[in-house]
Fold this sequence. Notes:
Elements: H1 3-11, E1 16-21, E2 25-31, E3 37-44, E4 48-50, E5 53-55, H2 58-80, E6 89-94, E7 100-102, H3 121-131, H4 140-149, E8 160-162, H5 164-173, E9 177-179, H6 180-183, E10 189-190, E11 195-196, H7 198-205, H8 217-220, E12 223-225, E13 230-233, H9 236-242, E14 253-255, E15 258-259, H10 260-267, E16 275-280, E17 284-289, E18 302-305, E19 311-317, H11 322-337, H12 344-353, E20 366-368, E21 385-387, H13 396-407, H14 409-420, E22 427-431, H15 440-449, E23 453-456, H16 462-476, H17 483-491, E24 497-500, H18 504-519, H19 521-530, H20 540-544
Helix pairs in contact: 3-4, 10-16, 15-18
InterPro entries: ATPase_NBD (IPR043129), FGGY_C (IPR018485), FGGY_Carb_Kinase (IPR050406), FGGY_N (IPR018484)
Organism: Weissella cibaria
GO molecular function: D-xylulokinase activity
Amino acid sequence: MNKEQIQNEIMNGQATLGIEFGSTRIKAVLVATDFSTIAVGSHEWENKLENGVWTYSLEDIWSGVQDAYRDMADQVNIEYGTVIRNLSSIGFAAMMHGYMAFDKGGNLLVPFRTWRNAITGQAASQLTELFDFNIPQRWSIAHLFQAILNQEAHVKDIDFMTTLAGYVHWQVTGEKVLGVGDASGVFPIDSNTVDYDEGMLNKFNELKSVQQYHWTLRDILPTVKSAGEEAGRLTDEGAKLLDPSGLLVGGAVAAAPEGDAGTGMVATNSVKQRTANVSAGTSAFAMIVLEKALSQAHEDIDMVTTPDGSAVAMVHANNSSSEINAWARMFKQFAQAIGVELSANDLYGALFRSVLDARPDAGGLLSYGYHSGENITGVNEGRPLFVRTPNAEFNLPNLMRMHLYSAFGAVKIGLDILKQEDVVMDSVVAQGGIFNTPVVGQKILAAVMDAPVTLMTNAGEGGPWGMAILSQYVTMREAGESLADFLENRVFANQDSTTMAPDPVDVAGFEEFMVRYKDGIAIEKAAIDAISDEPVVATVEEDEIHVGELEAARV
C-alpha cells in the first residue's frame, strides 16, 4: 500500500488501532487494511513495589496510554500530513492475570495487584486441589480467594473484578467483557462452551468462606467473548480518554480485550493445534496449542486458551530479560566513563554477538535473573545472582551466553514436563526484543526448545499489532472463516520469515548448563534468607536505555 492509499485510509476512518499494556511499555500500533503497520507510539512505565505489592496506579494507566496514543498520532501527522478522527476498529490488550476489584460506584477497592506478585500461595494451592486443575499464583481467582482467606474487608464490597485490559476496555466502551484468552487467566475455561467452567464455578461458590458474601462468582466476573465477536464500540467519552485533544471520536467497533498470551499467538500465527510460540521480555512464556488433553494437572503448566477458545499449555516464567538489561546498563556506564557513547542497538548488538564465541555450556558460569519470585523453581522473592567457581571461564562471551540461557532456565523446566506428556510441536515462532540481534537469540532458543525456531518480520511489533489484527477479524472476517484461516490465508499469506534448526552442540551445552541451574537453586533461596530487599528508586538515567531494551513480548 503506497503513501497516498494509507493517507486515504486514515482520513476515511478505515485504519485499526491496537494498544497493549506491557510490563515496561505501553504501545499503540495503527494498522492498515492490508495488515501493514502505519505508525507506532509508545510510553515507558514501571510497576512500583508499594506495601509489598507490585502495582501500577490508575493515573499511570491513563497518562501512559494517552502518551502512547499521542506519540502514534504525531507520527501519523508528520508522515501523512493528516490527523486521526475515526477508526474502523480498536482493541486493547495487556499483561494477563492480576486483580482489579471495583465497587458498585466503579471505584477501585484496593491497588491493582499485577501478575508479578507471588503472594497467593495458600489460595493457589487450595484451589488447585479443589478443581484438580492448576491455578497459578498469578491468576485473578487466586488473588480473589487469597483476599477471602486473609479476610480483607474490601471483598464484601466487590461488584466487578477484571484484568488490566478488561478495565481499560470497560472504561472506553462501557462493556464488562473479556476475550476468552484473557479470561482463561482469570478462571478456568471450558473449551467446549468457550466460557468459564461451570462445574468449577459451582465448587467455588459452595465454599463456606465464599458463601458469606452477597455475590456469586459469575455475578462479578466479566462476560466471556470469543475472537470475531463484537465487544461494544468506542464511546465519545472513551475516545477522549485516549485522545484528550478531542480529535478522535467514538464509533469504532471494539474487539474483546485480550491478554498478552493471546495477542502473542496471533502475532506469530500460532493458533492452530500443534503450533507453538515463545515470547521473551520482562517475563517469558512458551505456549503450545494442544491436540489432546494432558494426562494430569501439572503445577508448572498453565492451561489457557487461544483467542478462539482452543486449549493451550503455557509455561510462564516471571523473569527473563530484566537482568540482561541491568548488565547492559552497566556496560553502557563503563563506555560513557571512557568517553564512548553507544546507541542501544550497538550496545545490545555487540553484547549478543559475543555469544557466538562462547563455550556451549557458558564456561561453567551460573546466574539467576530473578527480579521477582519464580514459581516454577519455588523461589518467592527476587535476588539477581551471579556465581562461578574460581576455575570457570569468566569472559564476555560466556557471561552473555549464561544470561541468555538463564533467561529461559525456568521455562525449560516446564517444557521438560510437556515433553514427558508427548506434546507435539510442528512449529515454534518466537517474538520479543531478545531476538532483535540477528541469529543469536534465535540460535539460543532453538537449543532451549530443541526444535527449529522461526522469526517473522513483524516480530518487533508483537502484541499490539496482534491486538489490531484481532479487531480487524471482527470487521473483516467472512462467514464461517475461522481465526486460523484468517491468519493463514490473509494476514500471513506473504509473510517473510527465517527458520533456524537447533545445533546439537548448543543443545548439549544448554543441557549441561541446566544441570547447574537446577542444582544451584538452593543458592538463590539462601540469598533470599541472607540478604534483605530494600527497594531503590530508579533514576532517569537508568530508564533512558529502555528505548532499546529487550522488551517486546510484554512490551
